[in-house]
């Protein structure tokens, strides 16, 4: 299986992620995919970079699937790093190659097909998206196969999909976002995406929250940056030692977040559908 991982981060943000976690977002996503399919070959594209060598339509067609990461960018900002990613996503749709995306990935896929993204009027959703609930369509959809009637997932985002394009369906939502999961059919392509981050381990989430300590305190999630540090340390400790039931209880985390096979379920379902070669292609 050959996949293209589209890392949506600009170079400076990628390097900050590497400094805090040890891998860039694209490398981290590729590592998750490799744990699911050890034989998978993953190439990484960097469309936020001005000198990025982006694949042509023929190049995209050589892949079995495309996966889009998150990003600190905002898709409604009219700037070159954003425009390149929207155009690349349109090329992915045109290629007919199945695609999947987390957070920014869902937002880019929605806008590339004619939807809209705005700042969330409810503010930032960070740490964990709580009580994500599949819609009636989502309960029977292969993307969410194996998920319970409500579940939590790692997340961090300020923006949300405000309106989906034509030929799209909402698969899940919660109190913070009306679109937590969706399928979008556009051109020759089918995209499955989520607003949360099934690829994030607790350690990767901790690294992101550590570098956001000041804004998280300013926005009232914590009393001060030192309190963020304590939360971050709890996440890292729990990731290293799943027997710490005290920490799991304190933060309200269950197996849907703590067990990698369950946390990454949407990625696993997407990869399985691509390997099966059925309805992911028109």
Automatic annotation (TrEMBL):
**One MF term in GO for this entry?**
GMP synthase (glutamine-hydrolyzing) activity
Q: Which InterPro entries match?
A: ChyE-like, Class_I_gatase-like, GATASE
EC no. given is 6.3.5.2
Q: Which CDD domains match?
A: GATase1_1
SUPFAM superfamilies, alphabetized: Class I glutamine amidotransferase-like (SSF52317)
Q: Which UniProt keywords apply?
A: Ligase
Presence of keyword Cell membrane: no
What is the main EC category here?
A: ligase
Q: Name one GO cellular component term.
A: cytosol
Q: Does the keyword DNA-binding apply?
A: no
Domain of life from the UniProt record: Bacteria
Q: Which residues form the Glutamine amidotransferase domain?
A: 59-205
The name on file for this protein is: GMP synthase (Glutamine-hydrolyzing)
* Native source species: Chelatococcus caeni
Q: What is the lineage of its organism?
A: Bacteria, Pseudomonadati, Pseudomonadota, Alphaproteobacteria, Hyphomicrobiales
């Amino acid at each position: 299986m050959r996949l293209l991982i589209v890392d949506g981060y600009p170079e400076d943000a990628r390097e900050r992620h590497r400094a805090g976690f040890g891998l860039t977002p694209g490398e981290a996503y590729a590592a998750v995919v490799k744990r699911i399919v050890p034989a998978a070959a993953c190439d990484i594209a960097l469309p936020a970079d001005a000198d990025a060598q982006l694949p042509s339509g023929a190049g995209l067609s050589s892949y079995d699937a495309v996966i889009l990461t998150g990003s600190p960018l905002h898709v409604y900002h009219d700037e070159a790093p954003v425009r390149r990613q929207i155009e690349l996503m349109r090329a992915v749709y045109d290629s007919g190659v199945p695609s999947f995306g987390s957070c920014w990935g869902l937002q880019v896929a929605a806008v590339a097909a004619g939807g809209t993204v705005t700042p969330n009027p409810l503010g930032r959703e960070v740490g964990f998206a709580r009580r994500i609930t599949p819609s009636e369509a989502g309960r029977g959809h292969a993307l969410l196969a194996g998920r319970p009637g409500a579940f939590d997932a790692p997340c961090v985002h300020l923006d949300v999909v405000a309106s989906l394009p034509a030929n799209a369906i909402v698969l899940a939502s919660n109190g913070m976002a009306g679109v937590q999961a969706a399928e979008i059919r556009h051109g020759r392509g089918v995209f499955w995406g989520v607003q949360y981050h099934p690829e994030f381990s607790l350690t990767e989430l901790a690294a992101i929250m550590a570098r956001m300590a000041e804004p998280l305190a300013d926005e009232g999630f914590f009393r001060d940056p030192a309190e963020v540090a304590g939360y971050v340390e709890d996440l890292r400790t729990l990731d290293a030692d799943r027997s710490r039931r005290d920490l799991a209880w304190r933060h309200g985390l269950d197996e849907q977040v703590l067990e990698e096979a369950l946390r990454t379920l949407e990625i696993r379902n997407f990869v399985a559908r691509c390997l099966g070669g059925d309805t992911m292609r028109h």
